[in-house]
Amino acid sequence: MRGSKAAGATALVWVALMAAGCSGESSALPGPPEEVVQAGTSEEDVAQDVAACAAVSDVQSIVENADIALAEGRMAVQEQQGWYEVATRVLHRIPSSGDSAVSQAVADLQGTVPTVESWTRTEPAVIRSDAWSVALDALAGPCLAVDSELTTSMFTGG
Fold it and tell me: How far apart are CA 86 and CA 145, in angstroms?
């Protein structure tokens, strides 16, 4: 009797799955992620856009960690500005000459801060300007379109 109840329950589950349009086959493991390729865009161009978005995420990480360390009193303004200079140099090394939405948005972001040479001392305070924020926000959508969300890695503090 116990076996027939189990068989009956299994049959009911099977019928419910069939009625719901399920084949009963397990699909617990997802397939490989689909690459996002826009019409007329080569895989190489998409890869360059993904790399550009990752590099901007690194710039954001440098800036945010410097700001947190300054706010927590673990670094002086001079050191924060030094990290801003590094972030600015990294930003200006990102290729932005392509025709893609990411390349254009990166070029716009680069246009908000002047180039900083490693042997000069400047104060790139424009990193936190309104123009910087607007350009960074405008880059978020094109990066999402190539499945490369802008992120910030926080690593300072305790």
Answer: 28
